[in-house]
Amino acid sequence: MNTAQPFAYAITVDPADIDFMGHVNNASYLKWVQDAVVGHWKAFAPAQAVADLVWVATNHNITYRRPTFLNDQVIAHVILERVHGARAFYETVLKRGEDVLAEVKSSWCCLDAATLRPARLARELVERFLPAE
Predict the structure, then answer these.
(1) Exposed, middle or buried, 37 (CB in 10 Å: 0-12/13-18/19+)?
(2) What is the distance between the alpha carbons of residues 130 and 112, in angstroms, rounded to a whole number?
(3) What is the pLDDT of residue 130?
(4) How much is the CA Rg of the chain, to the nearest whole Å?
(5) Mean pLDDT of the chain
(6) Cα–Cα distance measured from residue 14 to residue 8, given in angstroms and rounded to the nearest whole number
(7) What are 68-95's pLDDT values in tens digits?
(8) CA distances (Å), 98 to each of 39, 81, 91, 127, in order?
């Protein structure tokens, strides 16, 4: 059972997100997921960790379920699935009310902000996100 701290991130659909077909462009979903995952990190990590460590995406796998439109109220539901060394694996579900708009599996690499080299997360830090069962 995953005991991860859930995180909800509100998304504003901007007119610039809308493509020629009248719905949100695929590239906007990637930005939203990045904003939501980084928001999750900033919500649970101590200030010093936020200053010392940064995250870069290494992979996104998006399954689109329904189109998203201007003025939709979208919430990204972020769950950290697991951490392995310097890597974190997330699931982000974008929803409009009860409608699932997209499901995203993504992997991220933690970097030391000064050196930009991969940084393994300390156990105490991981436990803030994934409490022991």
Answers:
(1) buried
(2) 21
(3) 78
(4) 15
(5) 93
(6) 19
(7) 999 999 999 999 999 999 999 999 999 9
(8) 22, 22, 17, 30
φ, ψ of residue 128 to 5 degrees: the values are -65, -30
Q: Which long-range contacts (CB under 8 A, 24 or more apart) does 27-33 make?
A: 29/62, 29/64, 29/94, 29/102, 29/104, 30/60, 30/62, 32/74, 32/76, 32/94, 33/60, 33/62, 33/76, 33/92, 33/94, 33/104, 33/106
Residue with tokens 């936020």: 50
If we measure between CA atoms, which residue out of 100, 79, 101 comes closest to residue 90?
79
33 DSSP 8-state letter: H
d(CA 80, CA 89): 6
Instruction: State mean pLDDT over 20-41.
Output: 96
| Cβ atoms within 10 Å of 21's Cβ, excluding its own | 8
Confidence of residue 1 (pLDDT cuts 50, 70, 90): very low
Q: Does the predicted TM-score (pTM) go above 0.85?
A: yes
CA 70 to chain centre: 21
> What is the percent of the chain where pLDDT is above 70?
95
Q: Residue 106's beta-bridge partner residues? A: 60, 90
